[in-house]
Amino acid sequence: MSNIMQEHAGLVWVHxxxxxxxxxxxxxxxxxxxxxxxxxxxxxxxxxxxxxxIGVQIKSGTSYFxxxxxxxYVYYASQNNARYWKNYILPAILVCFNPNNGxxxxxxxxxxxxxxxxxxxxxxxxxxxxxxxxxxxKTLIEVAERFRIPEDTIARTLRNLKVLNYKFNWSYNQxxxxxxxxxxxxxxxxxxxxxxxxxESRIHxxxxxxxxxxxxxxxxDHITLxxxxxxxxxxxxxxxxxxxxxxxEFLYGYKIFPEMAFSINEYxxxxxxxxxxxxxxxxxxxxxxxxxxxxxxxxxxxxxRRCEYQYDRFYERDKISSLCITDRFF
Length: 330
Fold this sequence. Notes:
Layout: H1 3-20, E1 23-27, E2 37-42, E3 49-60, E4 72-77, H2 79-87, E5 92-97, E6 104-108, E7 122-127, H3 137-145, H4 151-163, E8 165-170, E9 175-180, H5 181-188, E10 189-190, E11 195-198, H6 200-211, E12 216-217, H7 220-237, H8 244-253, E13 260-263, H9 266-277, H10 296-317
């Protein structure tokens, strides 16, 4: 079996087990740094999320079972992977799958030391008793429960985004409106795809919605500074996969407005759910009154639907960026 087919077999097995244990398997991007995807647990017998998510690294092939002892197996991870798992904000497990005999084992990576001499690989032990199957659900939920994030931490992050704001003009009468970091968060967040999609079409649309006007006027450099500060807050709060270095490279290296998507981690999912439940504490509801939607969750859904629609229109239309960053910004 080729390496590609072995990797595919492991992914298929994890997906299968997730279905059996009332969980959703969310595969990551093809250029992952040490996590292949996430398991999101649902309440038994329903489609309601528990809010518990675990990162998963999958190793598929017989070579991962060659170092055997009486109690289990040993996998030697690279220093880069071990460092990534150690710093990863979510709980994370390593799943090893043998496509020849169907044996699938797992280990809690956060329970490993993940420390070794920098000249050596890091030793990861995997018990023969830790079989990854539908009966694993209870154990994995216990692992995820240990990483529940206090609500005061989430509230503090949202307060920081609330005070971040950008004022812009609209109409010929030079009236102005304000969007905050919370408004921008709603414009770019997708719980469906568990990601933030930063794109100028979404930014423009949230400005149009907030002002109830198509005739908005703004300064490219000022709005870029606002987005930079927003992304700095998001990065420091660690509610997504790491993206700040790439953002800075685009903005200051290539001097173009960064348009990028980055995955939301468990903290990010909890933050969005908390925002939906307490939306009146963080956004000015009166500026959205014209939409005629009273229920907070439906209002957020409508805002995201409109921003998604404009994003799709942008790519159907001309695909040409209109934000121009001048030398004044740098």
